[in-house]
Q: What sequence folds into this?
């Protein structure tokens, strides 16, 4: 019997290790892992677009799809902000700096930063820990600032302690080329910023749809209530991009778990225009 | 020009013996209790092919096993490392029913349209497929409705038609022609009478189906919404979510992936068949399930009858009828289409 190594096995991860861990949220449920590849040659080949995701592998536990939080320009490692939810993410949360894991990707399509978004005013709307791939996207926009019009960011979390990337938000606040609105759900001691749910803030900011595109990530309930104020302001469904999350196994459009009508969220998405999503069954 | 030959029934076993001398041989075999299954045969001395009826299971497991290792891993001081090996041998599949060949053609779309699945593609590239046209469809069969039988035009290397004491053999591609050439001693020339008989049998077979399943009408109804929406609640109530239909279906290719540790430092990553009617199929780690349990079977039928047609220009059903035998809730493909079109 012939035994050759399968070189084109697209289920194989890259061997990697955790270089740094940042606890992002006050309740410890969100951690950002900085991950570096063991083999420099693997890392040299790695290229991703903002909005793509990867499968993180923990030996003996399996794989979970996680959005890539680092921008393509951060070449000292990949960042993943992980919510502790299931078997793999719980195992990840228990791992320390130096621990070994696997990375398979990049997977999915990403936001069309080099296509439809170019030259447009960009409105980023995010809730909770869904800011991760939008962080990658925002950093990309800032790196190529001249290619885009106004940049507006509306970001909300339950409490100040649940806001991601606080130090970076402080830096972004100082810039005059981003309109930044950070909000928390309810009044909290020591918080002097905006208070209110993301849809309310969207309503107040009332971003103009003129030459603009909106990128929205957040819990389903936030997305549901964010759409009416946008529609009222005249936004069309083909101006709104959403990033979906479905249960996934293979990540390459074969295993069937994430399919929704004619599409696979993993391969055809996770980024879709709302106009497209209106044409498929709501199985996401 | 693809060739046609005659193979006398007496010559079948000697031919197979020669053809599979340096290859694996899979063919329908009758087992002790009377059931017929596709099985690997090591010696043709005491096992003969049983072509009398449709094997209970399709060829799916030979191309996409119920469970397989996609890599082994090790952890430790040297890091987290992975290894995969290719154990695919050249294989002759003999006596394959038209529905099962059609099932493979459907799997080709899923596993090979890109990104290419390395495991499926290796097995597929090393498969020689000798099909068996169906002169007499069984009670449960409806392959005429999905245009995946009873006689095929493509998808095989060779296709046999039973003419009584001999088989009419047609080649479906260059490799079939090459088999005729390499094993020419076993074959004879086709006469005009053979051609006529084969043609007559293919026409007759079409008229022998006992079951009318209107897949085309089903597609149109699902497209236009011309049906009673209550059908979804009805079928959901009758489904016991056993996953049997997905298991037995030649075109159900959904799988899950999980780790199977041997100990702390090593283990395997496995992929295994999964079924969309199982409750956890679409449920996410946080507990949210975008497909409520009562919609799982609706999603399944929409996928096979509607979205596959839209995406791949072919129905996700090959009309083999195995789910008719399998489903004890009485909501197999044929019954569902009957309900939808009534």
A:
């Amino acid at each position: 019997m012939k035994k050759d190594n399968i070189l084109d096995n697209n289920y194989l991860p890259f061997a990697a290790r955790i270089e740094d861990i940042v606890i992002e949220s006050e309740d410890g449920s969100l951690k950002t892992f900085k991950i570096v590849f063991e083999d420099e040659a693997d890392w040299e080949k790695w290229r991703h677009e903002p909005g793509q995701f990867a499968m993180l592998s923990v030996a003996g536990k399996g794989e979970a799809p996680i959005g890539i939080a680092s921008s393509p320009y951060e070449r000292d490692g990949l960042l993943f902000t992980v919510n502790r939810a299931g078997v793999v993410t719980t195992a990840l949360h228990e791992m320390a700096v130096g621990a070994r894991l696997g990375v398979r990707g990049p997977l999915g399509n990403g936001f069309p930063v080099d296509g439809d978004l170019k030259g447009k005013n960009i409105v980023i709307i995010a809730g909770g820990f869904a800011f991760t791939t939008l962080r990658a996207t925002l950093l990309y926009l800032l790196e190529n600032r001249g290619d885009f019009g106004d940049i507006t960011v509306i970001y909300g979390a339950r409490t100040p302690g649940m806001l991601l990337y606080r130090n970076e938000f402080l830096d972004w606040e100082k810039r005059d080329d981003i309109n930044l609105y950070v909000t928390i759900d309810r009044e909290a001691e020591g918080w002097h910023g905006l208070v209110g749910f993301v849809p309310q803030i969207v309503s107040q900011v009332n971003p103009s749809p003129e030459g603009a595109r909106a990128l929205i990530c957040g819990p389903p309930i936030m997305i549901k209530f964010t759409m009416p104020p946008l529609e009222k302001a005249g936004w069309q469904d083909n101006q709104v991009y959403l990033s979906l999350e479905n249960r996934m196994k293979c990540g390459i459009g074969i295993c069937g778990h994430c399919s929704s009508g004619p599409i696979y969220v993993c391969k055809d998405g996770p980024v879709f225009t709302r106009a497209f999503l209106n044409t498929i069954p709501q199985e996401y | 020009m693809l060739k046609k030959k005659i193979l006398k029934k007496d010559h079948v076993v000697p031919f197979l013996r020669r053809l599979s001398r340096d290859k694996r041989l899979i063919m329908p075999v009758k087992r002790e209790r009377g059931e017929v299954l596709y099985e690997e045969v090591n010696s043709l001395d005491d096992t003969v092919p049983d072509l009398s009826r449709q094997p209970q299971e399709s060829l799916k497991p030979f191309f996409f096993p119920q469970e397989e290792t996609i890599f082994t891993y090790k952890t430790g001081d040297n890091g987290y490392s992975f290894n995969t090996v290719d154990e695919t041998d050249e294989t002759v599949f003999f006596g394959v029913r038209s529905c099962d060949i059609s099932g493979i053609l459907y799997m080709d779309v899923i596993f090979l349209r890109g990104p290419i699945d390395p495991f499926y593609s290796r097995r597929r590239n090393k498969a020689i497929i000798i099909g068996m046209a169906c002169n007499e469809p069984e009670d449960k069969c409806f392959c005429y409705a999905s245009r995946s039988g009873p006689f095929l035009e493509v998808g095989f290397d060779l296709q046999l038609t039973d003419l009584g004491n001999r088989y009419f053999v047609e080649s479906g591609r260059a490799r079939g022609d090459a088999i005729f050439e390499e094993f020419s001693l076993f074959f004879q020339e086709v006469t005009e009478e053979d051609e006529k008989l084969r043609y007559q049998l293919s026409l007759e077979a079409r008229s022998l189906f006992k079951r009318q399943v209107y897949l085309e009408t089903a597609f149109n109804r699902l497209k236009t919404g011309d049906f009673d929406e209550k059908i979804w609640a009805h079928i959901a109530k009758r489904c016991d979510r056993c996953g049997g239909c997905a298991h037995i279906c030649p075109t159900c290719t959904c799988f899950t992936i999980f780790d199977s540790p041997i100990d702390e430092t090593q283990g395997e990553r496995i992929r295994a068949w999964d079924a969309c009617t199982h409750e956890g199929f679409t449920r996410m780690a946080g507990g949210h399930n975008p497909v409520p349990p009562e919609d799982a079977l609706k999603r399944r039928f929409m996928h096979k009858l509607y979205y596959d047609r839209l995406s791949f220009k072919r129905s996700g059903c090959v009309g083999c009828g195995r789910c008719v035998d399998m489903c004890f809730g009485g909501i197999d493909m044929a019954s569902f289409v009957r309900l939808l079109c009534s």
